[in-house]
Amino acid sequence: MRRTPPVPHPDPDPRRPRVRTRTAAGAAAAGALALAAAALVAPPQAAQAAEVHCKAVYTVQNDWGSGFQATVTVTNLGTAWTSWTLGFSYGGNQSLSSGWNGSWTQSGRDVTVTSLPWNAAVPSGGSVAPAATFGYSGANAGPTAFTVNGVPCDGSGPTAPPTSPPPTSQPPTTPPPTDPPTTPPAGPAPALHVSGNRLVTAAGAPYRLLGVNRSSGEFACVQGKGVWDGPADQATVDAMRGWNVHAVRLPLNEECWLDTTSGTPAGGTTGAAYRKAVKDYADLLVANGINVVLDLHWSHGQYTGPGTGCPDTGATCQKPMPDLQYAPTFWKQVAETFKGNDAVLFDLFNEPYPDAADNWADATAAWTCLRDGGSCPGIGYPVAGMQSLVDAVRATGATNVVMTGGLTWTNDLSQWLAYAPKDPTGNLMASWHSYSWNGCVTASCWDSTIGAVAAKVPVQAGEIGQKTCAHDYIDQVMAWADAHGVGYSAWTWNPWGGCSSGGNVLVTDWNGTPTSTFGEGYRAHLLTQRP
Protein backbone atom coordinates (compact mmCIF):
# COMPACT_ATOMS: atom_id res chain seq x y z
CA MET A 1 0.00 0.00 0.00
CA ARG A 2 1.14 3.53 -0.73
CA ARG A 3 1.50 5.54 2.44
CA THR A 4 2.96 8.94 3.14
CA PRO A 5 6.03 8.78 5.39
CA PRO A 6 5.77 9.83 9.03
CA VAL A 7 6.84 13.35 9.90
CA PRO A 8 10.18 13.15 11.73
CA HIS A 9 10.49 15.01 15.00
CA PRO A 10 13.67 16.22 16.70
CA ASP A 11 15.73 13.64 18.51
CA PRO A 12 15.38 14.38 22.24
CA ASP A 13 18.53 12.51 23.22
CA PRO A 14 21.91 13.23 21.55
CA ARG A 15 23.02 9.70 22.39
CA ARG A 16 20.40 8.29 20.09
CA PRO A 17 20.92 7.63 16.39
CA ARG A 18 19.60 10.39 14.20
CA VAL A 19 17.66 7.90 12.11
CA ARG A 20 15.37 7.02 14.99
CA THR A 21 13.28 10.17 14.75
CA ARG A 22 10.35 7.83 14.08
CA THR A 23 10.51 6.53 17.65
CA ALA A 24 7.37 5.29 19.28
CA ALA A 25 5.37 4.76 22.37
CA GLY A 26 1.84 3.65 22.59
CA ALA A 27 -1.69 4.30 21.36
CA ALA A 28 -4.96 4.19 23.25
CA ALA A 29 -5.45 2.17 26.42
CA ALA A 30 -5.96 -1.49 25.69
CA GLY A 31 -8.83 -3.71 26.75
CA ALA A 32 -8.56 -5.68 29.92
CA LEU A 33 -6.41 -8.74 29.74
CA ALA A 34 -7.57 -11.99 31.21
CA LEU A 35 -5.95 -15.30 30.83
CA ALA A 36 -8.62 -17.87 30.73
CA ALA A 37 -7.75 -20.86 32.79
CA ALA A 38 -7.30 -23.91 30.80
CA ALA A 39 -8.69 -27.33 30.31
CA LEU A 40 -6.23 -28.80 27.89
CA VAL A 41 -7.72 -31.16 25.40
CA ALA A 42 -6.27 -34.46 24.50
CA PRO A 43 -7.58 -36.33 21.48
CA PRO A 44 -11.38 -36.18 21.21
CA GLN A 45 -12.11 -39.88 21.53
CA ALA A 46 -13.66 -40.84 24.87
CA ALA A 47 -10.98 -43.39 25.63
CA GLN A 48 -8.26 -40.83 25.15
CA ALA A 49 -10.13 -38.13 27.04
CA ALA A 50 -10.42 -40.41 30.03
CA GLU A 51 -6.63 -40.49 30.21
CA VAL A 52 -6.26 -36.72 30.53
CA HIS A 53 -4.48 -35.71 33.73
CA CYS A 54 -3.43 -32.10 34.22
CA LYS A 55 -3.00 -29.18 36.53
CA ALA A 56 -4.18 -25.64 35.73
CA VAL A 57 -2.86 -22.50 37.42
CA TYR A 58 -4.74 -19.24 36.78
CA THR A 59 -2.73 -16.03 37.21
CA VAL A 60 -3.73 -12.39 36.74
CA GLN A 61 -0.71 -10.39 35.61
CA ASN A 62 -2.35 -6.97 35.59
CA ASP A 63 -5.75 -5.63 36.72
CA TRP A 64 -6.50 -1.96 36.11
CA GLY A 65 -10.06 -1.86 37.44
CA SER A 66 -11.97 -2.12 34.17
CA GLY A 67 -9.96 -4.88 32.59
CA PHE A 68 -7.19 -7.36 33.21
CA GLN A 69 -4.69 -9.75 31.67
CA ALA A 70 -4.67 -13.37 32.79
CA THR A 71 -2.76 -16.54 31.95
CA VAL A 72 -3.74 -20.15 32.49
CA THR A 73 -0.71 -22.41 32.72
CA VAL A 74 -1.73 -26.01 32.07
CA THR A 75 0.66 -28.85 32.78
CA ASN A 76 0.14 -32.32 31.31
CA LEU A 77 0.48 -34.90 34.10
CA GLY A 78 -0.48 -37.88 31.95
CA THR A 79 0.16 -39.23 28.47
CA ALA A 80 1.12 -36.96 25.58
CA TRP A 81 -1.57 -34.84 23.90
CA THR A 82 -1.80 -34.30 20.16
CA SER A 83 -4.29 -31.45 20.66
CA TRP A 84 -6.04 -29.83 23.58
CA THR A 85 -9.14 -27.83 24.51
CA LEU A 86 -9.31 -25.84 27.70
CA GLY A 87 -12.59 -24.88 29.32
CA PHE A 88 -13.56 -22.75 32.32
CA SER A 89 -16.26 -20.30 33.45
CA TYR A 90 -16.36 -16.92 35.16
CA GLY A 91 -18.85 -16.02 37.86
CA GLY A 92 -19.08 -12.34 36.91
CA ASN A 93 -19.37 -10.25 33.75
CA GLN A 94 -15.81 -10.74 32.48
CA SER A 95 -15.83 -10.28 28.70
CA LEU A 96 -13.09 -11.57 26.38
CA SER A 97 -11.16 -8.86 24.51
CA SER A 98 -8.30 -10.76 22.86
CA GLY A 99 -6.29 -13.90 23.47
CA TRP A 100 -3.11 -15.62 22.38
CA ASN A 101 -1.35 -18.99 22.68
CA GLY A 102 -4.66 -20.57 21.68
CA SER A 103 -7.92 -19.90 19.82
CA TRP A 104 -10.21 -18.15 22.31
CA THR A 105 -14.02 -18.00 22.29
CA GLN A 106 -16.63 -17.06 24.90
CA SER A 107 -20.30 -17.97 25.20
CA GLY A 108 -21.99 -16.27 28.11
CA ARG A 109 -19.75 -16.94 31.09
CA ASP A 110 -18.12 -20.01 29.51
CA VAL A 111 -14.65 -19.63 27.96
CA THR A 112 -13.07 -22.15 25.59
CA VAL A 113 -9.47 -22.20 24.33
CA THR A 114 -8.37 -24.66 21.65
CA SER A 115 -4.82 -25.47 20.62
CA LEU A 116 -3.08 -23.92 17.64
CA PRO A 117 -1.00 -25.97 15.17
CA TRP A 118 2.29 -24.89 16.73
CA ASN A 119 1.38 -25.74 20.36
CA ALA A 120 -1.07 -28.62 19.90
CA ALA A 121 1.38 -31.37 20.88
CA VAL A 122 2.09 -31.38 24.63
CA PRO A 123 4.33 -34.16 25.98
CA SER A 124 3.93 -35.68 29.42
CA GLY A 125 5.29 -33.09 31.87
CA GLY A 126 4.97 -30.31 29.27
CA SER A 127 2.97 -27.12 29.67
CA VAL A 128 1.08 -24.57 27.63
CA ALA A 129 0.16 -21.06 28.78
CA PRO A 130 -2.78 -19.51 26.91
CA ALA A 131 -3.36 -15.90 27.90
CA ALA A 132 -5.94 -13.21 27.22
CA THR A 133 -7.26 -9.80 28.15
CA PHE A 134 -10.78 -9.19 29.46
CA GLY A 135 -12.97 -6.27 30.37
CA TYR A 136 -15.22 -6.28 33.44
CA SER A 137 -17.03 -4.20 36.04
CA GLY A 138 -17.67 -4.95 39.68
CA ALA A 139 -15.97 -8.01 41.18
CA ASN A 140 -13.27 -9.94 39.32
CA ALA A 141 -13.17 -13.39 40.90
CA GLY A 142 -11.17 -15.93 38.94
CA PRO A 143 -12.47 -19.30 37.73
CA THR A 144 -12.15 -22.21 40.11
CA ALA A 145 -12.52 -25.22 37.84
CA PHE A 146 -10.90 -26.11 34.53
CA THR A 147 -11.28 -28.93 32.06
CA VAL A 148 -9.15 -30.33 29.27
CA ASN A 149 -10.99 -32.33 26.63
CA GLY A 150 -13.97 -32.28 28.96
CA VAL A 151 -12.07 -33.93 31.82
CA PRO A 152 -11.54 -32.02 35.11
CA CYS A 153 -8.04 -30.57 35.30
CA ASP A 154 -7.65 -31.08 39.04
CA GLY A 155 -3.94 -31.72 39.42
CA SER A 156 -4.22 -35.47 39.77
CA GLY A 157 -1.94 -37.82 37.91
CA PRO A 158 -2.54 -41.28 36.48
CA THR A 159 -3.06 -44.08 38.98
CA ALA A 160 -0.95 -46.41 36.85
CA PRO A 161 2.04 -45.83 34.61
CA PRO A 162 1.08 -44.44 31.20
CA THR A 163 0.61 -46.96 28.42
CA SER A 164 3.03 -45.10 26.16
CA PRO A 165 6.67 -46.30 26.07
CA PRO A 166 8.38 -45.71 29.44
CA PRO A 167 10.90 -42.87 29.71
CA THR A 168 14.56 -43.71 29.41
CA SER A 169 15.26 -42.14 32.81
CA GLN A 170 13.52 -42.32 36.17
CA PRO A 171 10.38 -40.14 36.44
CA PRO A 172 10.68 -37.11 38.72
CA THR A 173 9.73 -37.59 42.34
CA THR A 174 8.01 -34.20 42.47
CA PRO A 175 5.36 -32.77 40.12
CA PRO A 176 6.65 -30.79 37.14
CA PRO A 177 6.69 -26.99 37.49
CA THR A 178 3.39 -25.30 36.82
CA ASP A 179 4.56 -21.75 36.17
CA PRO A 180 6.05 -20.55 32.87
CA PRO A 181 9.82 -20.07 32.91
CA THR A 182 11.19 -16.65 33.76
CA THR A 183 14.53 -17.24 32.05
CA PRO A 184 15.67 -19.17 29.00
CA PRO A 185 16.81 -22.70 29.88
CA ALA A 186 20.45 -23.29 30.76
CA GLY A 187 22.67 -24.07 27.80
CA PRO A 188 23.28 -22.47 24.42
CA ALA A 189 20.57 -21.11 22.16
CA PRO A 190 19.22 -23.63 19.65
CA ALA A 191 20.42 -23.86 16.06
CA LEU A 192 17.44 -22.95 13.90
CA HIS A 193 16.29 -23.64 10.36
CA VAL A 194 13.13 -23.13 8.33
CA SER A 195 10.58 -25.91 7.94
CA GLY A 196 7.45 -24.85 6.06
CA ASN A 197 6.18 -21.70 7.72
CA ARG A 198 7.96 -22.19 11.03
CA LEU A 199 11.39 -21.79 12.51
CA VAL A 200 12.33 -25.11 14.09
CA THR A 201 15.15 -26.50 16.19
CA ALA A 202 17.47 -29.30 15.10
CA ALA A 203 14.97 -31.71 16.71
CA GLY A 204 12.15 -30.26 14.61
CA ALA A 205 10.38 -28.41 17.45
CA PRO A 206 8.73 -25.08 16.45
CA TYR A 207 10.54 -22.08 17.91
CA ARG A 208 9.68 -18.37 17.98
CA LEU A 209 12.13 -15.51 18.45
CA LEU A 210 10.73 -13.48 21.36
CA GLY A 211 12.90 -10.70 22.71
CA VAL A 212 14.28 -7.19 22.33
CA ASN A 213 16.40 -4.94 20.17
CA ARG A 214 19.69 -3.74 21.66
CA SER A 215 20.44 -0.55 19.75
CA SER A 216 23.86 1.18 19.56
CA GLY A 217 25.89 -1.05 17.25
CA GLU A 218 24.57 1.03 14.36
CA PHE A 219 25.47 4.49 15.72
CA ALA A 220 27.96 4.42 18.63
CA CYS A 221 30.94 3.62 16.40
CA VAL A 222 30.47 6.80 14.33
CA GLN A 223 29.51 9.03 17.27
CA GLY A 224 32.57 8.47 19.44
CA LYS A 225 30.83 6.08 21.85
CA GLY A 226 32.65 2.79 21.30
CA VAL A 227 30.46 -0.02 19.98
CA TRP A 228 27.59 -0.58 22.41
CA ASP A 229 27.21 2.82 24.15
CA GLY A 230 27.01 0.91 27.43
CA PRO A 231 27.98 -2.47 28.90
CA ALA A 232 27.72 -5.69 26.92
CA ASP A 233 28.62 -8.11 29.69
CA GLN A 234 27.18 -11.07 31.59
CA ALA A 235 25.25 -8.79 33.96
CA THR A 236 23.34 -7.19 31.09
CA VAL A 237 22.60 -10.61 29.61
CA ASP A 238 21.36 -11.83 33.00
CA ALA A 239 19.01 -8.83 33.11
CA MET A 240 17.59 -9.83 29.73
CA ARG A 241 17.17 -13.42 30.88
CA GLY A 242 15.18 -12.10 33.83
CA TRP A 243 12.64 -10.79 31.31
CA ASN A 244 12.43 -14.22 29.62
CA VAL A 245 14.17 -12.79 26.54
CA HIS A 246 15.00 -15.56 24.06
CA ALA A 247 16.26 -13.38 21.16
CA VAL A 248 18.22 -10.15 20.80
CA ARG A 249 18.37 -8.17 17.57
CA LEU A 250 21.62 -6.24 17.13
CA PRO A 251 21.55 -3.36 14.60
CA LEU A 252 24.96 -2.95 12.94
CA ASN A 253 26.87 -0.34 10.94
CA GLU A 254 28.17 -1.47 7.54
CA GLU A 255 31.15 0.87 7.37
CA CYS A 256 32.24 0.34 10.97
CA TRP A 257 32.41 -3.40 10.26
CA LEU A 258 34.34 -2.89 7.01
CA ASP A 259 36.52 -0.06 8.38
CA THR A 260 35.63 2.25 5.50
CA THR A 261 34.57 5.22 7.65
CA SER A 262 36.52 8.45 7.44
CA GLY A 263 37.12 10.85 10.27
CA THR A 264 35.93 8.49 13.00
CA PRO A 265 35.62 10.59 16.19
CA ALA A 266 37.60 9.86 19.31
CA GLY A 267 36.10 6.90 21.09
CA GLY A 268 34.67 5.47 17.88
CA THR A 269 35.43 1.84 17.10
CA THR A 270 35.78 0.36 13.63
CA GLY A 271 37.45 -2.48 11.77
CA ALA A 272 38.85 -5.46 13.65
CA ALA A 273 37.90 -4.05 17.06
CA TYR A 274 34.29 -3.55 15.95
CA ARG A 275 34.06 -7.01 14.42
CA LYS A 276 35.48 -8.58 17.59
CA ALA A 277 33.01 -6.72 19.78
CA VAL A 278 30.08 -7.95 17.67
CA LYS A 279 31.39 -11.52 17.66
CA ASP A 280 32.06 -11.53 21.41
CA TYR A 281 28.63 -10.17 22.33
CA ALA A 282 26.80 -12.49 19.96
CA ASP A 283 28.72 -15.47 21.34
CA LEU A 284 27.89 -14.42 24.92
CA LEU A 285 24.19 -14.16 24.16
CA VAL A 286 24.10 -17.53 22.38
CA ALA A 287 25.97 -19.19 25.25
CA ASN A 288 23.22 -17.92 27.57
CA GLY A 289 20.40 -19.46 25.55
CA ILE A 290 19.54 -16.30 23.58
CA ASN A 291 19.37 -16.36 19.78
CA VAL A 292 20.93 -13.40 17.96
CA VAL A 293 19.62 -11.52 14.92
CA LEU A 294 22.28 -9.40 13.18
CA ASP A 295 20.73 -6.50 11.27
CA LEU A 296 22.29 -4.19 8.66
CA HIS A 297 20.89 -0.89 9.94
CA TRP A 298 23.08 2.04 8.82
CA SER A 299 24.78 1.92 5.44
CA HIS A 300 26.69 3.87 2.78
CA GLY A 301 25.18 6.02 0.03
CA GLN A 302 24.10 9.64 -0.26
CA TYR A 303 20.34 10.13 -0.15
CA THR A 304 18.38 13.32 0.53
CA GLY A 305 14.88 12.39 -0.67
CA PRO A 306 11.64 11.68 1.23
CA GLY A 307 12.18 10.04 4.60
CA THR A 308 15.88 10.92 4.72
CA GLY A 309 17.68 10.80 8.04
CA CYS A 310 20.84 12.66 6.98
CA PRO A 311 22.55 14.12 3.90
CA ASP A 312 25.76 12.14 4.54
CA THR A 313 27.27 9.69 2.08
CA GLY A 314 28.74 7.70 4.96
CA ALA A 315 26.83 5.29 7.21
CA THR A 316 25.54 7.88 9.68
CA CYS A 317 21.82 7.22 9.29
CA GLN A 318 19.28 4.87 7.78
CA LYS A 319 19.13 4.84 3.95
CA PRO A 320 16.22 3.64 1.75
CA MET A 321 18.14 0.61 0.40
CA PRO A 322 21.55 -1.04 0.94
CA ASP A 323 24.33 0.07 -1.39
CA LEU A 324 25.94 -2.14 -4.00
CA GLN A 325 29.41 -0.79 -3.19
CA TYR A 326 29.72 -2.21 0.33
CA ALA A 327 26.63 -4.19 1.43
CA PRO A 328 27.42 -7.49 -0.37
CA THR A 329 30.95 -7.43 1.08
CA PHE A 330 29.55 -6.70 4.54
CA TRP A 331 27.25 -9.73 4.41
CA LYS A 332 29.94 -11.95 2.93
CA GLN A 333 32.22 -11.15 5.89
CA VAL A 334 29.43 -11.47 8.48
CA ALA A 335 28.46 -14.84 7.02
CA GLU A 336 32.06 -16.04 7.09
CA THR A 337 32.32 -14.97 10.73
CA PHE A 338 29.16 -16.77 11.90
CA LYS A 339 29.06 -19.65 9.45
CA GLY A 340 28.39 -22.88 11.32
CA ASN A 341 26.58 -21.10 14.18
CA ASP A 342 22.92 -21.42 13.16
CA ALA A 343 21.77 -19.90 16.45
CA VAL A 344 22.62 -16.57 14.75
CA LEU A 345 20.25 -15.20 12.10
CA PHE A 346 20.83 -12.47 9.48
CA ASP A 347 18.34 -9.61 8.90
CA LEU A 348 19.66 -8.39 5.54
CA PHE A 349 18.41 -4.78 5.70
CA ASN A 350 16.56 -2.95 8.43
CA GLU A 351 13.73 -0.94 6.85
CA PRO A 352 13.67 -0.62 3.06
CA TYR A 353 11.67 2.31 1.69
CA PRO A 354 12.36 2.54 -2.07
CA ASP A 355 8.63 3.28 -2.55
CA ALA A 356 8.94 6.45 -0.44
CA ALA A 357 12.11 7.43 -2.31
CA ASP A 358 10.02 7.40 -5.52
CA ASN A 359 7.10 9.21 -3.86
CA TRP A 360 5.02 6.03 -4.17
CA ALA A 361 4.85 6.51 -7.94
CA ASP A 362 5.21 2.87 -9.01
CA ALA A 363 4.70 -0.04 -6.61
CA THR A 364 5.98 -2.58 -9.16
CA ALA A 365 9.21 -0.64 -9.60
CA ALA A 366 9.65 -0.43 -5.83
CA TRP A 367 9.18 -4.18 -5.29
CA THR A 368 11.52 -4.90 -8.21
CA CYS A 369 14.12 -2.56 -6.70
CA LEU A 370 13.80 -4.35 -3.37
CA ARG A 371 14.53 -7.73 -4.92
CA ASP A 372 16.88 -6.90 -7.82
CA GLY A 373 18.57 -3.61 -6.90
CA GLY A 374 20.47 -1.73 -9.56
CA SER A 375 19.37 1.77 -10.52
CA CYS A 376 16.23 2.57 -8.53
CA PRO A 377 13.96 5.63 -8.97
CA GLY A 378 14.72 8.36 -6.46
CA ILE A 379 17.90 6.73 -5.11
CA GLY A 380 21.12 8.24 -6.39
CA TYR A 381 23.51 5.38 -5.67
CA PRO A 382 23.66 1.81 -7.09
CA VAL A 383 21.44 -0.42 -4.94
CA ALA A 384 22.06 -3.94 -3.69
CA GLY A 385 18.81 -5.91 -3.95
CA MET A 386 17.86 -8.65 -1.53
CA GLN A 387 18.76 -11.34 -4.05
CA SER A 388 22.36 -10.12 -4.26
CA LEU A 389 22.65 -10.14 -0.45
CA VAL A 390 21.20 -13.66 -0.16
CA ASP A 391 23.69 -14.74 -2.84
CA ALA A 392 26.59 -13.11 -0.93
CA VAL A 393 25.68 -15.03 2.24
CA ARG A 394 25.17 -18.38 0.51
CA ALA A 395 28.39 -18.08 -1.49
CA THR A 396 30.28 -18.56 1.79
CA GLY A 397 28.54 -21.88 2.50
CA ALA A 398 26.66 -20.37 5.47
CA THR A 399 23.23 -21.91 6.12
CA ASN A 400 22.10 -19.37 8.74
CA VAL A 401 18.46 -18.30 8.44
CA VAL A 402 18.17 -14.98 6.56
CA MET A 403 15.36 -12.40 6.79
CA THR A 404 14.25 -9.94 4.13
CA GLY A 405 11.74 -7.15 4.62
CA GLY A 406 9.05 -5.43 2.59
CA LEU A 407 8.34 -1.83 1.58
CA THR A 408 7.42 1.29 3.55
CA TRP A 409 9.99 0.72 6.28
CA THR A 410 9.12 -3.02 6.06
CA ASN A 411 5.57 -2.48 7.32
CA ASP A 412 4.16 -3.49 3.91
CA LEU A 413 4.52 -7.20 3.08
CA SER A 414 1.62 -7.22 0.61
CA GLN A 415 3.77 -8.44 -2.32
CA TRP A 416 6.54 -10.14 -0.36
CA LEU A 417 5.71 -13.62 -1.61
CA ALA A 418 5.71 -12.51 -5.25
CA TYR A 419 9.08 -10.74 -4.96
CA ALA A 420 10.90 -12.93 -2.43
CA PRO A 421 14.52 -13.70 -3.37
CA LYS A 422 15.51 -17.27 -4.14
CA ASP A 423 17.40 -19.10 -1.40
CA PRO A 424 18.96 -22.46 -2.33
CA THR A 425 18.97 -23.57 1.32
CA GLY A 426 15.29 -22.77 1.93
CA ASN A 427 16.24 -20.88 5.11
CA LEU A 428 14.45 -17.66 4.22
CA MET A 429 11.92 -15.82 6.38
CA ALA A 430 10.10 -12.48 6.20
CA SER A 431 10.91 -9.44 8.32
CA TRP A 432 8.02 -7.18 9.42
CA HIS A 433 7.99 -4.00 11.54
CA SER A 434 4.86 -2.70 13.24
CA TYR A 435 4.53 0.69 14.92
CA SER A 436 1.28 2.43 15.79
CA TRP A 437 1.88 5.19 13.20
CA ASN A 438 2.40 2.79 10.28
CA GLY A 439 -0.14 2.18 7.51
CA CYS A 440 -1.02 -1.43 8.39
CA VAL A 441 -2.08 -1.27 12.06
CA THR A 442 -5.25 -3.35 12.35
CA ALA A 443 -5.92 -7.05 12.73
CA SER A 444 -7.84 -7.06 9.45
CA CYS A 445 -4.81 -5.64 7.62
CA TRP A 446 -2.50 -8.11 9.35
CA ASP A 447 -4.82 -10.98 8.44
CA SER A 448 -4.89 -10.09 4.76
CA THR A 449 -1.22 -9.19 4.27
CA ILE A 450 1.07 -10.43 7.04
CA GLY A 451 -1.08 -13.50 7.65
CA ALA A 452 -0.86 -14.52 3.99
CA VAL A 453 2.94 -14.46 4.23
CA ALA A 454 2.99 -16.21 7.62
CA ALA A 455 0.97 -19.07 6.10
CA LYS A 456 3.87 -19.78 3.73
CA VAL A 457 7.11 -18.78 5.49
CA PRO A 458 8.14 -17.78 9.03
CA VAL A 459 7.58 -14.11 9.87
CA GLN A 460 9.46 -12.10 12.47
CA ALA A 461 8.25 -8.72 13.75
CA GLY A 462 11.78 -7.44 14.23
CA GLU A 463 10.62 -4.10 15.67
CA ILE A 464 7.36 -3.25 17.43
CA GLY A 465 6.41 -0.09 19.27
CA GLN A 466 3.97 2.79 19.60
CA LYS A 467 3.61 6.55 20.00
CA THR A 468 3.05 6.76 23.74
CA CYS A 469 4.44 5.12 26.85
CA ALA A 470 1.45 2.79 27.10
CA HIS A 471 1.51 -0.74 25.69
CA ASP A 472 -1.99 -1.08 24.26
CA TYR A 473 -0.87 -1.13 20.62
CA ILE A 474 1.93 -3.64 21.10
CA ASP A 475 -0.50 -5.76 23.13
CA GLN A 476 -2.62 -6.05 19.99
CA VAL A 477 0.39 -6.84 17.83
CA MET A 478 1.61 -9.52 20.24
CA ALA A 479 -1.84 -11.10 20.61
CA TRP A 480 -2.12 -11.38 16.83
CA ALA A 481 1.45 -12.64 16.49
CA ASP A 482 0.98 -15.23 19.25
CA ALA A 483 -2.12 -16.56 17.50
CA HIS A 484 -0.26 -16.84 14.17
CA GLY A 485 3.08 -18.26 15.35
CA VAL A 486 4.92 -14.99 14.59
CA GLY A 487 7.91 -13.87 16.68
CA TYR A 488 8.62 -10.31 17.82
CA SER A 489 11.28 -8.10 19.41
CA ALA A 490 10.39 -4.71 20.89
CA TRP A 491 12.40 -1.53 20.39
CA THR A 492 14.54 -1.00 22.46
CA TRP A 493 16.68 -2.30 25.37
CA ASN A 494 18.52 1.00 25.96
CA PRO A 495 18.16 3.28 29.02
CA TRP A 496 17.57 6.52 27.11
CA GLY A 497 16.02 8.51 29.92
CA GLY A 498 12.69 6.74 30.12
CA CYS A 499 9.95 6.10 27.62
CA SER A 500 8.66 9.69 27.52
CA SER A 501 12.07 11.01 26.42
CA GLY A 502 11.65 9.64 22.93
CA GLY A 503 9.42 6.62 22.94
CA ASN A 504 9.87 2.86 22.72
CA VAL A 505 12.37 2.65 25.56
CA LEU A 506 12.01 -0.58 27.52
CA VAL A 507 14.42 -0.04 30.44
CA THR A 508 15.56 2.73 32.75
CA ASP A 509 18.96 1.16 33.47
CA TRP A 510 21.20 -1.68 32.30
CA ASN A 511 19.92 -3.82 35.20
CA GLY A 512 16.65 -4.26 33.31
CA THR A 513 14.35 -2.04 35.39
CA PRO A 514 11.33 -1.63 33.09
CA THR A 515 9.98 1.75 32.05
CA SER A 516 6.46 2.68 33.06
CA THR A 517 4.31 1.44 31.44
CA PHE A 518 5.71 0.44 28.07
CA GLY A 519 8.52 -1.68 29.50
CA GLU A 520 6.33 -3.04 32.31
CA GLY A 521 3.68 -4.21 29.89
CA TYR A 522 6.13 -5.83 27.49
CA ARG A 523 8.01 -7.58 30.28
CA ALA A 524 4.78 -8.93 31.79
CA HIS A 525 3.80 -10.40 28.45
CA LEU A 526 7.19 -11.97 27.77
CA LEU A 527 7.03 -13.71 31.13
CA THR A 528 3.92 -15.58 29.96
CA GLN A 529 5.52 -16.86 26.78
CA ARG A 530 7.49 -19.88 25.67
CA PRO A 531 9.35 -19.70 22.38
Automatic annotation (TrEMBL):
Keyword annotations: Carbohydrate metabolism, Cellulose degradation, Glycosidase, Hydrolase, Polysaccharide degradation, Signal
Domain of life, source organism: Bacteria
Biased composition (Pro residues): 159-188
GO annotation, biological process: cellulose catabolic process
GO molecular function list: cellulase activity; polysaccharide binding
InterPro entries registered for this protein in UniProt: CBD2, CBM2/CBM3_carb-bd_dom_sf, CBM2_carb-bd_dom_sf, GH, Glyco_hydro_5, Glyco_hydro_5_CS, TAT_signal
Domain CBM2: 47-156
Coiled-coil boundaries: none
Signal peptide bounds: 1-49
SUPFAM superfamilies found in the cross-reference section: (Trans)glycosidases, Carbohydrate-binding domain
Family, similarity comment: Belongs to the glycosyl hydrolase 5 (cellulase A) family.
Protein known as: Endoglucanase
Organism: Kitasatospora phosalacinea
